Amino acid sequence: MPIKIIEGLPVRTKLQQEQVYTIEASRAISQDIRPLKILILNLMPLKETTELQLLRLLGNSPLQVDVEFLHMSTHKSRNTPTSHLQKFYKTYNEVKDDYFDGMIVTGAPVEKLNFEQVGYIDELKTIIDWAQTHVFSRFYICWGAQFALNHYYNVEKYTLSEKLFGVFDYQNIKPEHPYIRGFDDIYQVPQSRHTKINYEVLHDIPELEILTSSKEYGPDIITSKNQRDLFIFGHLEYDRETLKKEYDRDAGNGLDTAVPYNYYPENNPAENPKFQWRSHGHLLFNNWLNETYQNTLYDLTKLQKLT
Hints:
The chain has nine helices and twelve strands. The chain is α/β, with parallel strands linked by helices. It has one domain (about 5-160, about 195-240, about 280-305): Rossmann fold (3-Layer(aba) Sandwich), CATH 3.40.50. It starts with a strand and ends in a 12-residue tail after the last helix.
């Protein structure tokens, strides 16, 4: 089944080249089917890059997925044209009376700041509180996951002594859980962050369940016991060259940046990076969509009765 996107979204051409099936609203409206309504709160600066990464994964599903993009009205994007945001994105005020089956909150390049120093933090708090009554299933990525865990459970964030940058092994410790169905015992995930949360307190929060973890780097995928909130600190949505572009950018700016761990053959940046996490990215997103589809309400207006 195709993923429904806004008319004229530029990344559709790239998706079609990759044979990711898409359908525009004018065609989808004629189909007698209840699609999954997914809201993507895109906090990344290069929004079209993140759109492409997430739509690739959401589009690899037998379900019809109706996607809408959300941006922060209290933040001025310096890397995405205002015309793109006005045409393809909505603000909180435009969606606050709507209901969604799922919502994805991306990472953001603000992790070195304390949460309260982030300029749009009050609007973000409003959105994820609203999502508790207007969205059935929430999926938080990287900094988005750190913030959500802090906001909901008061889990603190700390600065690492050095950046966690590269592709790392994590252990599947709950293989029976539907969110990681099909995962190998050990899987690899890209990490690119300067911070971590206080992992030690997670075991003392009865509402949470750790699904995957590393002895060296702590948990990666966490879910709420009711499975309506999913948190991942890594980036299974990343493309082959995402870490390369970040490394080249920082090295080109004269920063003392390490070569991404376990990313290039023989640790040589002149080589083509290894793409080692793609299948698990598709598994995680497919599992999340499937669980959302199986458990969400047909009448989304009844969501508030679940809280």
